Amino acid sequence: MIKQYIEDKTCVIKIDRPKYLNALNIELLEKLKEIYLKYQNSNNVRTFILTGHGDKAFIAGADIKSMYSMSKHEAHSFSKLGNDLTLQIENCSKPTICAINGFALGGGCELAMACHLRVASENAVFGQPESGLGLIPGFGGTQRLPRLVGLTNAYKILLSGSLIKSQQAFNIGLVSDIFEQKNLLNEAMKIASNINSKSSNATKYIIKSVNEGISLDISKALELETLYFKKIFEHEDRKIGISSFLQKKEPKFSGQ
Ligand code: DAK
Question: Does the C-beta of 110 come closer than 6 Å to ligand 1?
């Protein structure tokens, strides 16, 4: 259901339910949550890559079949689990790069949107088809999509339920890069390795400042940035980074 391994301080998570185009069910969400809980504070991991097995689907949404027979109680747990997981990913001090290798629909697109970076294969397809199923997005789609692509693009995608391809997703800022399918994971690894070479404290405070500041008015958000800017001066990494620059050498951050 999920394959996971660690390579060069990057935890690679592969959703592997090909028979259902990697659709999300409760078990899968629980497993994902467990992986994040296990590695979010581990010294062996600096970044996560979230991707899907194969070249057809990243995640084709929540498991439609299991939603049909879901009781109200199960729907509530499902919703809570999904929203807890997206917040856990988004607020983790270690960034997740989502490598979208095919269909990213409904809950799949929503999970991708909770990640810090999104890169896609040329054949990737995005959409929030929930309205056609008599539903609305349940894992943050109505909230994160407008923040990422603006109201005009978000309403078009949410209300129409239409699917868009990689190039359009790139044009509206939903993904940062498009790669050939065969190179997708390698390219995501390169992005991760670049982040891994930077100060983990800087990574952590950038994520905190962006996440906490995005819903504040600009003056409060700038105060927050000032606060974290001051905090970063408590860390040895700042001295290592600046002195390496002055000595014209590559910094080797300690994470202290
Ligand atoms: N769930 C379960 N099975 C799925 C699936 C899904 N989301 N998507 C595909 N499959 C299954 C298909 O049923 C099929 O199984 P068999 O018939 O072979 O047994 C197999 O995967 C292969 O799919 P297709 O034969 O359909 O493959 P095609 O290439 O023809 O089409 C497709 C690919 C991705 C265009 C098509 O499969 C499709 O339209 N899939 C459904 C996409 C979709 O509508 N996704 C959004 C799901 S709704 C909430 C929380 C979350 C959500 C809502 C509320 N709260 C708790 C309130 C989220 C909702 C969603 O994500």
Answer: no
Decide: 64 in ligand 1 pocket, CB within 6 A.
yes
Calculate the CA dihedral of residues 175, 176, 179, 183 and round it to 10 degrees.
-100
Spell out the per-residue pLDDT of the chain, length 256, in tens.
Answer: 999 999 999 999 999 999 999 999 999 999 999 999 999 999 999 999 999 999 999 999 999 998 888 888 888 888 899 999 999 999 999 999 999 999 999 999 999 999 999 999 999 999 999 999 999 999 999 999 999 999 999 999 999 999 999 999 999 999 999 999 999 999 999 999 999 999 999 999 999 999 999 999 999 999 999 999 999 999 999 999 999 999 999 999 999 9
192 and 213 belong to one structural domain: no
Q: Are residues 209 and 147 in the same domain?
A: no
Is the beta carbon of 65 within 6 A of some atom in ligand 1? yes
User: Is 254 a domain residue?
Assistant: no
The helix/strand/coil state of 135 is coil
Q: Do 157 and 128 share a structural domain?
A: yes
Using DSSP's 3-state secondary structure scheme, residue 51 falls into: strand
By most ligand atoms within 8 Å of CB, the mutation choice from 27, 63, 64 for ligand 1 is: 64
110 among known catalytic residues: yes
CA distance 132 to 61: 13
In this structure, which amino acid lies at residue 9? Answer: K
> Are 65 and 40 members of one domain?
yes
Catalytic residue among 27, 110, 180, 212: 110
pTM of the complete model: 0.96
Whether residue 218 is contained in a domain is answered as yes
